Amino acid sequence: MRNTEAQRIRGTEGFLNKTLCFLDGFVVQNVLGSWIGEQLLNKIHANYELALIELTQTLNFTIGYSNMTVQRETDTEPRITDSTAEQLLHDLVAIPSPSHSEGNAVDMLTQWMLEYGYDTAFIDAAGNAVGIIGKGSRDIVLLGHIDTFGGNPPVRREERYLYGRGSVDAKGSLAAFAVGALRANLADDVRLIVIGAVEEEARSSKGARFAATQYQPQMCVIGEPSQWDRITIGYKGRLLLEWEWRGALAHSAGQAATGAELAFAYWQRVQDYTKQTNEGEDRIFGQLDVTLQDINTGQDGAYGWARMTIGFRLPPKKDPYQIASDLQNEENATVTAHGHEVAIVADKNTRLSAAFRGAIRAQGGKPRFVHKTGTSDMNVVAPIWNCPILAYGAGDSALDHTPNEHINLDEYLNAIKVLTSALERL
Ligand SMILES: [Zn+2]
Q1: For range 215-226, the mean pLDDT
Q2: N- or C-end of the chain: fewer Cβ atoms within 10 A?
Q3: Catalytic residues
């Protein structure tokens, strides 16, 4: 039991004849006898939920206050209402913020944080929106991203669905962080840092890389969608190869390979390498995936050229630098590697994960762990912070980057409840 709770319970003993008492997030209507306050205090040290049930029964049946109720405060009067939470998400989605153009959304979110009672909120040197609650020594970082994939499908609300770029990836998760952080009764020793990072969708990951140098948290939650009742603990790694050839054109057919032929020969080499790497590995998360993202060929009469971009998704324990080096040594062509990220698989058995599992169960869900085939800012910060980490957020990630991107607002509100309850368990 946290000290603040005990203190607030003690505080209620001073209001014996008041008709309304607040017990750390619970509202007790009607009269609370002093001896019950004393008893409750003892019971609360043993089991808080049980103590509240017993208190209700005692007041209803022993004393005879039959209209007495004990409820969670958030069920009756949340500090940030659901409609405020929905408005925040709508407003964030309505401000376009593709990577490198996040400024307006960052301004809006930091203003919102100040207005709704964050202890401080500011724009950091990388351009991230940062809000802080609490002054404790234990840092918990909620790292979402405020940039979105490109394109701007119209923002609209249809019944309980909000459509628009970023509604799922990942403003839904970020807005839930912003609201959940305010609703939660945090432990006294916690300092909660909410970050809306820039350039997650860009290869630079500028916002997360900068945040990684600013904090050394004891726990981190990444804001990415995986549905309200699931917890993401794994992301694949990444590598991009740019293959490029330029050469004199042969004067007649058959004398030398064309750029297009050389490109396909290299693509064949990459596919063979991938197949060999995956031998005996049946799990998708355990396999190296490769995509030919782009191919261009052309000629100007005397010279021809060919270019390809090849993208890899790496399973755990595969070194992107090793793969890049294995696929070098192309005669007459250059191969440039970038975007190196190793795969991340976080520990399932942490206090952080237990808090989320408990919170999902408390909302009636069956928590499940997920491994994603893409990358996220978890790939950037996990190797540096080396602390318990997971990703959480409402929405269907299959809608990421699609023209049809939308989020169910009820799921969003549910995720906020889970997040709030998880934060209170930390
Ligand atoms: Zn994302």
Answers
A1: 98
A2: N
A3: 147, 200
